[in-house]
Write a structure and sequence with these properties.
The chain is α/β, with parallel strands linked by helices. The protein is built from seven helices and nine strands.
Length: about 210
């Protein structure tokens, strides 16, 4: 099942079912980005708008991109603001956004579905202003090593999405290859229990 079809199928109950990864990422994003100022934002994998709803409180303009038309319909139901526009796109193809547009690019729980990190970083570099911030938060590779991946249940049973494991070194290499500097790397644990495998890993990169 392609990524857009999978998330179209998941969209109806995505916000309703228990999802520790989704909920922890929202906490990570808010805690990480609250200290930054931003006016123009690009959201990669904005989904049903879980982060858009609070990003719009500070931003003057947000462009939310997602593979799934059905997830975007849910986002549009939540967020009725002329400051936000949503686009259904293939994130692995050039983004229809002017260069040097964004103060902030936010990328949440989408890169496990994308094989080539270098393309995402290359496009991000083009679309960010000088010294712009690139926030990424993804399922921790340690969780992936242990078999965790994006999955959901529908009337036909468990649906597992196609995923790619990205080692920390891949993020570091994509950073140096595409003109970014790492400002922050943080691991996020369920209930902040550091005796367990971290669930998420987040980065803050700055365009140089």
């Amino acid at each position: 099942m392609t990524i857009d079809k999978a998330y179209n199928s998941w969209a109806d109950n995505y916000d309703a079912v228990e999802n520790k990864t989704r909920d922890l990422e929202k906490i990570a994003a808010k805690q990480t980005l609250d200290r930054y100022n931003y006016s123009t934002v690009v959201e990669l994998g904005c989904g049903t708008g879980k982060n858009t709803v609070w990003l719009v409180e500070k931003a003057n303009s947000i462009i939310g991109l997602d593979f799934s038309s059905e997830m975007l319909l849910k986002a549009k139901e939540k967020i009725r603001s002329n400051k936000v526009q949503f686009q259904q796109v293939d994130l692995t193809k050039p983004w229809n956004i002017e260069d040097n547009y964004a103060d902030l690019i936010s990328c949440s729980l989408v890169l496990e579905h994308i094989y080539d990190l270098n393309f995402i970083f290359s496009e991000g570099f083009k679309k960010l202003k000088s010294k712009g911030i690139f926030y990424i938060c993804e399922l921790h590779p340690f969780k992936q090593y242990s078999g965790s991946k994006a999955r959901f249940e529908n009337e036909n049973g468990i649906v597992e999405l196609e995923v790619f494991t990205h080692h920390v070194s891949e993020y570091v290499n994509a950073t140096t290859n595409n003109g970014f500097k790492i400002l922050e790397l943080k691991e996020w644990f369920d209930n902040d229990d550091k005796t367990e495998i971290p669930r998420l890993i987040s980065f803050i990169f700055e365009k140089q």
